[in-house]
């Protein structure tokens, strides 16, 4: 269907052959015939060494075009192997907002290397953007754009645009400021070109301007683009001076970022900015275990509710059938049943964290179906560590509850068996839920079903039944004697 | 902070005063000084009659600018009250892709009225877009754009652009085709203007073009915009001819639509396209009950697992403590406990459907905190109807399970009490969960907490404990005699 689905593999092979054969001019031609994004994607499939070699064969301005499309680890490798002079030349060709995007993801030694090799002017610009709070308009704005003056004529404006066209972002409207850099209007490129040369800019511009401040939250920035159907948005500082613009193509990434954040939060995952495979296991453990812990501890409420009702149901007056302490009926109704809500809740939450992450990553193409084994391996490690945290917390939780319930006298093997049953079951179901949560969306996609639709309901059903079965099976082992003996 | 937060109310009052005083020229001035989106928002706050009066005072091209920003119900009202001639004039000023957007939401009598009053040419265009499958590139493309020819000079191209500038979408790059309408290249407006007038277009254009087909899924369209950082994307038909373009501002709506779809699906809500308050109660009942039904029926699996284990635990060999049929111990372990997973699962799912919808609607500003009462009223009606469906299905489910379990002999009051307990508890918890699910995100937003973070975990905790308590309380009423009698 689409022109660039077949090409990438082929393109990658072509590039590799040209590098191996050292055909420099052919390589340059090939690169010029394709989109930088495609070239970067094709090159990314090569060994890092070969990428470096390929880039050495290309001119700096071409490398700069490709560079921003590489993943952060390749960018890091390139900056690492480049000399100071090369870094300087490369970054001179890249727009400041892209540099900021890159630097935000890099380790500090790389950031230092880049800043050391930037011109004082661009270092100032980079730092001015870096200083804005994350997710504010200031942190995502561009500072390279052409400003027009109210006092100019159309002809003067066109000259300035022509002069600056290589160094500014390609946009179709320009902002007009007065001598004090106060925003006065906006003017379309077409309007400017079709106007009489001597017309004053102030007569051509539209004075209705939508703007936000550097401190405005990026969510609000998105709203402006949506509401007014605009292509660029001017950014003012607190003194109402024009300091930057945001272009619509940058906003697209922000929209997806915000949606991902919302999706993750609703599944009880603390937001992480990076793509699935870019997020370390430990970071994932942290972002997931906070809510799992909170939810497990909150489940105590349901556990108590069940306990209370079990007592009421068991307190019949005749005494004939009254449940004796430590009998098997007592164990089932007073110890195990109240824990059902804790085990199935934790399993369900853990599973839906994983499936939510994978569903979103699949829809953003951060994860492909072929990454199946990598996902399983990552989920396994995350689950093993998260399990340790949860089980430890649960141990303390259980001991505390029993200590209160049995007025400090928790020295009954049945209580410890019950704690052991829940602990072991919780660890096992956590691992199983996370593996199934990672597996189901990929499986759904593989058989061409919608991962979002398939994963959630199937997951709940499977994980619920499985966790219950595991819990009661382990209970059987610990309480076998009581079941036999009565 | 932002220029347009205070204005809307004020603007609305100003407009109302000008209408009441019949100050036509002042109204026209006011409208021209503001963005169409703001004017539409301000007017929307007035009575429908006043909106119609206001629009009659404005010229058709101004009305056309505002018109697309109104909600569908206001648009419908306007078309209804307009004469055929007025409709014709109005829609001549609106871009075809916007007309299609509007028509897709309108009842068929309105669609007929509009199509009847369109020129044959634009009727053809509208129908050509309407025929494409929903969510395909064809269904969201624009057909009004300027095409350039490979054989033209820069001067000729500029003349054509100047001529067509009023009727085509404002874009900064143009597509170049050959005599057979095959896409040959893309050219920037700037390149064109700064080129020597006699240069041939084929020498100026960039032959690297990203394109998709009319049948391409909109998700793939989004990917192209993200990957290549482009502002427009050309659309080809199956014969590889250029038939339309998609501009980046239209893609923003599509991105949010796709994210909303994913979010809803993950919460077990069949996707509906409309905003929260635009979706009818009955449509919501349908979009939610499908998955609630599926999940409730799937919960049978967990119910069986618990039943099986309860039997094993109760089957101790000595017989001394063996649970007698229809005793209170039997009722608790064999009848009520296996239903725990069904009641808390259904309550949780129903609640998270509501909270997910409200969280998303809040973040897209479709719902504001002041809509609190409206949300509660809507959720109450949705829950009442959904409850009827679920409880009926559950009745059949329970009778079937007991019929199998008790080999057709279900004529024991205890079994019917158990069915009644679950049915009543399910109806009550469904309503309560949906109300809490709608309430929590709004409450969170009101006290300036993040609705997405606060709603999910709190909801689970509250709904779980509440549904369990309601279930066992109702059970107490039905089984009081057995508890007392033993």
From TrEMBL, chains A, B:
Topology of this chain in the membrane: Multi-pass membrane protein
SUPFAM superfamilies the record matches: CBS-domain pair, MgtE membrane domain-like, MgtE N-terminal domain-like
Localization per record: Cell membrane; Membrane
Residue ranges crossing the lipid bilayer per the database entry: 290-310, 330-350, 382-403, 415-443, 455-480
Gene Ontology molecular function terms on file: magnesium ion transmembrane transporter activity; metal ion binding
PROSITE patterns linked to this entry: CBS
Keywords, alphabetical: CBS domain, Cell membrane, Magnesium, Membrane, Metal-binding, Transmembrane, Transmembrane helix, Transport
Family matches, as InterPro entries: CBS_dom (IPR000644), CBS_dom_sf (IPR046342), Mg_transptr_MgtE_intracell_dom (IPR006668), MgtE_N_sf (IPR038076), MgtE_transporter (IPR006669), SLC41_membr_dom (IPR006667), SLC41_membr_dom_sf (IPR036739)
Superkingdom field: Bacteria
Listed GO CC annotations: plasma membrane
NCBIfam families, per database record: mgtE
Family: Belongs to the SLC41A transporter family.
The protein's assembly and partners: Homodimer.
Record function comment: Acts as a magnesium transporter.
Name the record gives this protein: Magnesium transporter MgtE
Native organism: Spiroplasma culicicola AES-1
Gene that this polypeptide is encoded by: mgtE
